[in-house]
Amino acid sequence: MYFSASIFALAKFRSPTGTALLIACTNFVFTLGAFSAIDRIGRRRILLFSIPFMSIGLLLSSVAFTFVTISPSTTTTAPTTAPPWAPTLLIASLLLFVAAYALGLGNVPWQQSELFPLRVRAVGSAIATTANWLCNALVGMTFLPMVERLTAAGAVGVYAVVCVGVWVWVWARYPERMGVGLEDVGGEEREEG
């Protein structure tokens, strides 16, 4: 989201701002969809469904970036030998990534209060929100240096691997709280203990 207009400009798209707006609108529409579906489907289920599509979108954009070369330190691209399908694949893969992100990781971390028992809810939510913003800042700060060192294809490939790791963590550790009232969170631990 931060660099989409720059990426499309460096990749010599005719309308980089318009393409970036398409990405932003996709994010908006799928975020609204997630808000309306999250309580019916469940946070864990949405994450387990959306993260693989994020990974696929990133892997496909990595493939596209092997043909559409950009360099953030200059405003030039490699010689235009990219096949005609590469820019289309780049846009389609980024739209897939953003749609899946908006459904899951762009939405669920902001609705984490039901993970915490009432006695620690404020502190837990503050820590979770801080962690969310720190991860956001980490991606923002590492993207351009990674593009410089690894190329855009390599940087996006690294993020795809991170998404796979996140999916494994969600599958192994993230609890589903669908149907559990806010006041009841933490009660299961007392009953078991």
Describe the structure.
The protein is an all-alpha fold. It has a single domain, classed as Growth Hormone, Chain: A (Up-down Bundle). 70% of the residues lie in helices and 0% in strands. It contains 6 helices and no strands. It has helices spanning 4-10, 16-41, 43-67, 85-103, 121-173, 187-192. Helix 1 crosses helix 2 (16-41) and helix 3 runs antiparallel to helix 4 (85-103). The longest helix has 53 residues, at 121-173. The protein starts with a helix and ends with a helix. Residues 75-79 and 189-193 have low confidence and may be disordered.
Features:
single chain; 193 residues; mainly alpha; Growth Hormone, Chain: A; 70% helix; disordered C terminus
Cα shape:
elongated
Uncertain segments are: 75-79, 189-193
Q: Determine the N-to-C terminus distance.
A: 45 Å
Number of strands: 0
In percent, how helical is the residue content? over 70%
* Share in β-strands: under 5%
**H/E topology pattern:** HHHHHH
Main sheet specs: none
Give the count of structural domains. 1
The name of the CATH topology is Growth Hormone, Chain: A
CATH architecture: Up-down Bundle
Q: Which class do the helix and strand fractions yield?
A: mainly alpha
